């Protein structure tokens, strides 16, 4: 027993070459579909809106006769499970959904199967939010950060559009605006775009140097100058709740998150959303198939369905997401399409992480 | 001690401490190795001291250490200080004491996540407390109590959740003190405070230490309360660890994790030692 | 003032404090559970604008709640019992023998508590997977929980073993009692409170633990915290979380009352007479 434990401990995290490389690579798509039907079911670990997804996948089940199982769970739980069982011969996860930038925290080729065998479709998206998913990750859910506001307090004509407008709003209405710097990307999207505008630093360049980081100083000064007039909140959901509770008038939010909370009767339906002209980031979620997926063929067929134009059109209609297939219809968005032009991409790594650290050191800790 | 004395002790320790050392010990080993650059989940594994020096250089880290110790220490001390009088009072059963004991322990049954969201509800800007204070005319306008900078919210929730645990341990310890000793000391003219210092405290010290240490460790590593009601201009160590992890910096996360473990163990030893000195030596 | 007067005054005081301490949060939980999805409850309103039992009915009928209740309430007692059995010998050694390094051994027993949760979640579960324990998910979770919460069991029982009185043991031995009889008369009365405290604490820890139970159990075994973390994660469905915690409170209160009674009957100051 003791020896076995030692051996097991030594093997932990050692990235043993995958024993179970599911051999789909030399199969035709028809053969993969046939095998998928034989496998009969697929387990999709997705960390949000599980109830809605359980309804949304019924057309897949009808079309292929493959049952889809969507377990309950949250983001941290799902990702820890994926990492904990990476060395198992056969795992529990067939298809794994994750925030697109989270995929950047692991080695894609050692964890996930190649998706090269999907039928060719140039409309699919594998580069999103400044992250390249390569052959291993495809986007299935596009979302947009912006500002949630209470129309009873701020009229649509008075909405701040530029950095200066925000500064004026803060001065005119102290402590009616709040943003988070962690536990969710809406606040970081806001402060990074302010930094980009004030300091004029190019976020599409991922290179880290002292000169580039010190160039951010005017941006930090901007936040420190108005420190008394805005609030730091705890998370994405805290932002929206405090606008709904009439404490704040405006706060950063994700478009799909706000819509979801409103649909469930969690927050007031009156709250509105816009993308300021200074720009806010778009983001999204992707899917990948773990190397030890128990039903690799069915997983492949499911990913194909999930990223297809029809499914993406349906998600746009039902959830208001930005479609992640070029051929999909995107007419049903929650914000007018002209505002979409203000969409920005997340900064390139590793520069972005350094900016986040510097923001904490220079702004958050100075409060 | 001879080998003959050691054999039974060893045999007794195997199923408990033995299992812990083998199973959790190897996990600790992984964490330590990870902080030195091994077990990489991203990129190559190679020995490096860089993560330690980088993390230790940051102001954020030293602040997190101080802040976590502050929360851990006060949560433990306040919980135990509140639980002691209650435990002594509930030592001898009286009508309703069972119900009362159960009532006091009810927070044990409420999940921390739920406690946190209920607390926010009460203290939020337009919440119950603000409405009440304005209603009776003490405050003229709502005050912002959420994420207070002194972490009183965190301490309140920690005490709310942990006091019952301390009470549970202390009730057991205080009840095992026999009536004779207390009666004898009363006959000799010892007042309540003298009885507490000379008899109850020394005889219940083990239970008190256990409560102290376990609450300290839990509050030191707090994540849930800190990220919902804690101050937003400071981070706890657990929070810092998770933020490193979510940026894919697994090694720095492990550095914070290993530091957290070290502080937890050293702090526990220190707390146990000091409380023993205060309760036994200092007051005698 | 007489002792009785003082006592009833104290009772009134503590009950008042306990009322604020408990009644407010629990009333809030009840109100939250009654929020109808038709209209949200915002902080500026004293009561939810629309109230119904929709969430209760919906949770009961459309979620894995019933299944999760069964698994949580079988997992947690099993983990508590196994933890107790594993802890007893070590606690006996730590509580009754004075050996060099005893304090250090006590400190080492705390290890499972000090390892950061995400490290335990990823690497401890990976270790269990490597050992092949996952073929029986239920057993693996019980085992993992009993190891993780051993520190509570060991510390609590050590305290109990320390309170066993040597004169009781000696007296029993002098009277020629067998090992079992000696355990029953000298040890058990002092251990009972510790045993029930251990069972209670490990039970509660196990029923609240999310990460390990999820990683090993999912997708076959769903526990209550999985539902809770789903509810209070991204989508933040507060009414559902309130329903869940209220549903948990009822069986837990009964359980605690039973344990409280066991503990009381075992009060050593009463049952062992004048020692």
In whole angstroms, the N-to-C terminal distance of chain C is: 32 Å
Uncertain regions spanning at least 5 consecutive residues of chain C? 267-275
The number of domains of chain C is 1
Principal-axis shape of chain C equals globular
Instruction: Give the CATH topology of chain C.
Output: MetI-like fold
Mean pLDDT of chain A: 89
CATH-level-2 architecture of chain C? Orthogonal Bundle
Helicity of chain C, as a percent range: over 70%
Name of the top-level CATH class of chain C: Mainly Alpha
- The portion of residues forming beta strands of chain A comes to 5-15%
Strand segment tally of chain C:
0
CATH top-level class of the largest domain in chain A: Alpha Beta
Biggest beta-sheet profile of chain C: none
- Count of helical stretches of chain C: 14
- How far apart the termini of chain A lie comes to 54 Å
- The outline of chain A comes out as globular
Total helical elements of chain A: 15
Q: So what's the oligomer here? A: heterotrimer
Question: Structural class of the helices, strands and pairings of chain C?
Answer: mainly alpha
Q: Greatest chain-chain interface?
A: B-C, 94 and 94 residues
Describe what this molecule looks like in 3D.
Chain A is of the alpha/beta class. Helices cover 38% and strands 15% of the residues of chain A. Chain A has helices spanning 2-11, 29-39, 50-56, 58-64, 75-84, 108-111, 163-172, 186-199, 210-214, 217-225, 236-244, 255-263, 296-306, 309-319, 351-364, and strands spanning 41-45, 67-69, 95-99, 127-128, 131-132, 138-149, 178-180, 231-233, 250-254, 272-274, 280-288, 343-344. Chain A is globular. Mean pLDDT of chain A is 89; it is low at 13-21. The model of chain B has no long low-confidence stretch (mean pLDDT 87). Chain B folds into two domains: 1-35, no CATH class; 50-282, MetI-like (MetI-like fold, Orthogonal Bundle). Chain B is flat, with a radius of gyration of 23 Å. By secondary structure, chain B is mainly α. Chain B is 74% helix and 0% strand. With 275 residues, chain C is mostly helical. Chain C has a single domain, classed as MetI-like (MetI-like fold, Orthogonal Bundle). Chain C has 14 helices and no strands. The longest helix of chain C has 32 residues, at 65-96. Chain C starts with a helix and ends with a helix. Mean pLDDT of chain C is 85; it is low at 267-275. Chains B and C meet through helix 1, helix 4, helix 5, helix 7 and helix 10 of B and helix 1, helix 3, helix 4, helix 5 and helix 6 of C.
């Amino acid at each position: 027993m003791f020896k076995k434990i030692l051996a097991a401990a030594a093997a932990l995290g050692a990235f043993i070459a995958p024993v179970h490389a599911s051999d789909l690579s030399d199969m035709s798509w028809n053969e993969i579909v046939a095998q998928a039907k034989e496998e009969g079911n697929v387990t999709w670990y997705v960390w949000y809106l599980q109830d809605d997804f359980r309804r949304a996948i019924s057309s897949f089940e009808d079309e292929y006769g493959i049952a889809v199982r969507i377990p309950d769970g949250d983001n941290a739980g799902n990702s820890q499970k994926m990492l904990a069982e990476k060395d198992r011969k056969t795992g529990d996860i067939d298809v794994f959904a994750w925030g697109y930038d989270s995929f950047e925290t692991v080695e894609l080729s050692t964890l996930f199967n190649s998706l090269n065998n999907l039928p060719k479709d140039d409309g699919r998206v594998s580069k999103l939010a400044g992250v390249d998913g390569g052959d291993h990750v495809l986007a299935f859910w596009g979302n947009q950060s912006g500002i949630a506001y209470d129309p009873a307090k701020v009229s649509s004509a008075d909405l701040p559009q530029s950095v200066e407008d925000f500064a004026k709003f803060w001065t005119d209405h102290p402590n009616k605006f709040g943003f988070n710097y962690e536990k969710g990307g809406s606040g970081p999207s806001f402060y990074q775009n302010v930094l980009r505008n004030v300091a004029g630093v190019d976020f599409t360049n991922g290179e880290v140097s002292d000169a580039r980081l010190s160039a951010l100083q005017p941006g930090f000064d901007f936040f420190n100058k108005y420190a008394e007039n805005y609030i730091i909140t705890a998370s994405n959901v805290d932002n929206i709740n405090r606008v709904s509770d009439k404490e704040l008038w405006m706060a950063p939010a994700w478009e799909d998150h706000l819509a979801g909370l409103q649909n469930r009767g969690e927050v007031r339906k009156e709250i509105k959303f816009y993308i300021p002209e200074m720009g806010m980031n778009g983001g999204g979620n992707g899917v990948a198939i773990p190397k030890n997926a128990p039903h690799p063929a069915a997983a492949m067929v499911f990913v194909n369905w999930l990223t297809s134009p029809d499914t993406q059109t349906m998600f746009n209609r039902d959830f208001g997401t930005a479609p992640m297939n070029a051929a999909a219809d995107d007419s049903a968005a929650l914000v007018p399409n002209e505002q979409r032009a203000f969409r920005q991409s997340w900064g390139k790594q590793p520069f972005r992480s350094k900016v986040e650290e510097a923001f904490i050191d220079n702004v958050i800790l100075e409060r | 001690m001879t080998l003959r004395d050691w054999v039974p002790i060893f045999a007794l320790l195997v199923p408990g401490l033995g299992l812990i050392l083998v199973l959790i010990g190897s996990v600790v080993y992984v964490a330590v190795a990870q902080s030195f650059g091994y077990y990489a989940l991203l990129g190559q594994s190679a020995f490096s001291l860089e993560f330690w020096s980088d993390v230790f250089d940051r102001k954020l880290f030293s602040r997190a250490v101080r802040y976590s110790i502050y929360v851990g220490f006060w949560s433990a001390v306040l919980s135990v200080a509140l639980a002691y009088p209650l435990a002594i009072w509930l030592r001898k059963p009286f009508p309703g004491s069972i119900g009362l004991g159960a009532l006091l322990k009810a927070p044990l049954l409420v999940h921390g996540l739920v406690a946190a969201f209920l607390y926010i509800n009460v203290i939020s800007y337009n919440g119950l407390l603000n409405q009440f204070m304005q209603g009776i005319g003490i405050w003229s306008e709502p005050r912002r109590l959420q994420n207070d900078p002194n972490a009183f919210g965190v301490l309140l929730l920690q005490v709310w959740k942990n006091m019952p645990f301390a009470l549970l341990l202390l009730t057991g310890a205080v009840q095992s003190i026999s009536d004779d000793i207390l009666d004898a000391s009363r006959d000799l003219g010892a007042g309540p405070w003298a009885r507490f210092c000379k008899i109850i405290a020394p005889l219940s010290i083990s239970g008190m230490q256990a409560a102290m240490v376990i609450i300290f460790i839990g509050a030191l590593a707090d994540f849930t309360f800190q990220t919902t009601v804690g101050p937003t201009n400071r981070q706890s160590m657990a929070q810092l660890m998770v933020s490193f992890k979510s940026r894919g910096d697994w090694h720095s996360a492990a550095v914070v994790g290993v530091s957290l473990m070290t502080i937890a163990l050293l702090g526990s030893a220190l707390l146990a030692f000091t409380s023993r000195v205060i309760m036994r030596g200092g007051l005698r | 003032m007489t002792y009785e007067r003082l006592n009833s005054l104290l009772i009134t005081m503590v009950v008042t404090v306990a009322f604020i301490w408990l009644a407010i949060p629990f009333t809030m939980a009840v109100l939250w559970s009654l929020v109808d999805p038709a209209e949200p409850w915002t902080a500026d309103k004293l009561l939810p604008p629309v109230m119904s039992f929709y969430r209760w009915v919906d949770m009961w009928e459309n979620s894995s709640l019933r299944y999760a209740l069964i698994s949580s309430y079988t997992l947690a007692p099993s983990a508590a019992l196994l933890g107790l059995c594993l802890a007893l010998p070590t606690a006996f050694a730590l509580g009754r023998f004075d050996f060099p390094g005893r304090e250090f051994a006590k400190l080492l027993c705390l290890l499972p508590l000090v390892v950061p949760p995400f490290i335990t979640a990823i690497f401890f579960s990976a270790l269990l997977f490597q050992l092949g324990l996952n073929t029986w998910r239920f057993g693996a979770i019980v085992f993992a929980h009993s190891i993780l919460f051993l520190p509570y069991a060991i510390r609590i029982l050590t305290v109990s073993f320390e309170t066993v009185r040597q004169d009781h043991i000696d007296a029993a031995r002098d009277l020629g009692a067998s090992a079992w009889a000696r355990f029953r008369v000298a040890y058990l009365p002092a251990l009972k409170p510790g045993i029930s405290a251990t069972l209670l604490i490990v039970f509660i820890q196990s029923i609240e633990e999310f990460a390990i139970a999820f990683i090993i159990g999912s997708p076959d075994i769903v526990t209550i915290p999985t539902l809770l973390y789903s509810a209070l994660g991204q989508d933040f469905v507060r009414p559902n979380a309130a329903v869940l915690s209220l549903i948990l409170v009822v069986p837990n209160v009964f359980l605690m009352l039973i344990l409280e009674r066991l503990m009381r009957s075992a009060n050593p100051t009463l049952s062992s007479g004048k020692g």
